Amino acid sequence: MSEQENLIVAIDKYLKVGIHIGTKFRTAYMEPFIYKTRPDGLSVLNVQEIDRRLGIAAKFLSRYKPEEILIVCRRENGWKAVKLFQRLTNIRGFPGRYPPGVLTNTSLEDFFETRVLFVIDPIPDRNAMNDAFKMGIPIIALCDTNNETNLIDLVIPCNNKGKKSLGLILWILAKEYLKLRGIVKSDDEIKITDEEFTAE
Hints:
Blueprint: H1 2-5, H2 11-16, E1 34-37, E2 43-45, H3 47-61, E3 69-73, H4 79-89, E4 92-95, E5 116-119, H5 126-134, E6 139-143, E7 154-157, H6 163-180, H7 194-198
Parallel strand pairs: 3-4, 3-5, 5-6, 6-7
Antiparallel strand pairs: 1-2
Helix pairs in contact: 3-6, 4-6
């Protein structure tokens, strides 16, 4: 069971929030991350791979200051978790509507530069992704089995629709980011718990 011992959080915590439960629709892009298909037709993602990629994403994000990262989430189920993520990390975010052109149009009053874009779902967040792609900004995205990944630099396969799943993912990324940046030394110093992130 050594594989499980190396996970960022215990496997039952992942399973409890349904982080691995995909949709009935699967794209060729996401095929490599699918572990099996359940009798009800839902795809099941590989939990070890989800965990591994969360670790890679946290390391990648930790190379940047909070003001150099932008998180975007059009999906309402993720708004609360994104706001808590922002509060913990000071990373700029748009929970709700992404204002078109803020990354590309220098004449806009609210234009700003970012060095990394992190999106919760490539389908509703495609405007932000298109802007980042035009500007050559690397894109990290949470991708379910129905997503296409052709503009994305780092795919995190997961259930990107459920409140609890999104809460756990964003709590993990926030705490790992703070630890890797040297802002906190252990999980005990994190001011907001995973329960607050995952509460309905």
